[in-house]
Specification:
Chain lengths: 84, 222
């Protein structure tokens, strides 16, 4: 697994636990442990996303970073990640 | 209530006109949804039937959605002897038609028993009352199950799901969470139908806390 795929995999993992934690917080909005967990991994996700996009292009359309070309269309489509 | 050693029949008297039908278990009375104000105890003593009306305490004269919250002293524990045959009537008088829900006694298993006063052998009345397909003993197929007679969930509506409050515990590492499909180990139920049998996982195979990963089975949904 190359570095890009490793990084992408980590983003998937962190995104998943954030989503799971968000579902938990929907029913436990005052759970401090869950809030701290969410905050920690939310920060982690931002770091990973910035690292990935700075190296390999935007992960989402909103990752466009002020270039003179629309980078989103040049980044891999979801089905292209495994092919890389 | 005082213990009555030889109770042969037991009737509920409802303040409502509609048929009160209540479960009678060896450990006591599980009332249904109707108001109960008194019970009639028919005790058999040397062949003679004695009627004994017992008024229920005032605080119990209210409607219960189920009897699970009924105080235990309300239950006629001990009043039901081994010779118990149970039944219920619409107005407290014997000889009424079979109730809408099966009654159970210690000896009769379930279904309407052939009590000495009130016989619930009218098959058509059972069918009309929607008590299911009759069998030889008048029981619904699903109502006579092996095992303990007293169902701890008796009185609860059928097909009601529950969701316990989820604690924040058993948090997996992100890598394991993504591969397992859940962040919480308490919700981790791998599906291995061919590898997860009760023989492998033991009697606690339904309990996620007793899952044995070494046996390759989650056992949570088998």
């Amino acid at each position: 697994m190359n570095e890009q795929k490793k990084l992408y995999r980590m983003i998937q993992q962190v995104s998943f636990v954030l989503y799971e934690t968000g579902l938990y917080l929907d029913t436990h909005p005052n759970c401090r442990q869950a809030l701290a967990y969410f905050q920690r991994y939310n920060t982690r996700l931002r770091e990973l996303t910035e690292r990935y996009e700075s190296r390999y292009g935007p992960l989402t359309m909103y990752g466009q970073n002020g270039c003179d070309r629309w980078q989103w269309v040049g980044s891999p489509w979801p089905w292209e990640y495994d092919a890389q | 209530m005082d213990a009555i050693p030889q109770v042969s029949m037991l009737f509920f008297v409802s303040a409502m006109d509609s048929a009160p039908c209540h479960h009678i278990f060896p450990d006591g009375i599980h009332c249904g949804e109707k108001r109960i104000r008194s019970v009639l105890l028919y005790s058999s003593n040397n062949g003679s039937i004695r009627e004994n009306r017992r008024q229920l305490p005032m605080e119990y004269r209210k409607e219960y959605g189920s009897c699970t919250d009924m105080p235990e002293d309300m239950m006629l524990r001990g009043a039901l002897s081994d010779t118990l045959r149970c039944s219920c009537s619409q107005n407290g008088r014997p000889g009424q038609s079979c109730p809408t829900v099966e009654n159970r006694g210690r000896d009769s298993g379930c279904g309407c028993s052939n009590g000495s006063v009130n016989r619930c052998s009218n098959r058509s009345s059972r069918q009309e009352n929607g008590s299911g397909g009759p069998s030889d003993d008048g029981c619904m197929a699903g109502s006579c199950v092996a095992g303990p007679r007293v169902d701890p969930l008796s009185g609860f509506p059928l097909a009601m799901a529950y969701v316990p409050n989820q604690p924040w515990e058993g948090i997996q590492e992100p890598e394991d969470a993504l591969s397992g499909g859940t962040l919480f180990t308490g919700l981790l139920f791998p599906w291995h139908p061919s590898r997860c049998g009760a023989s492998q996982c033991g009697s606690s195979y339904r309990d996620p806390s007793h899952r044995d990963a070494s046996k390759g089975c989650g056992c949570g949904r088998n």
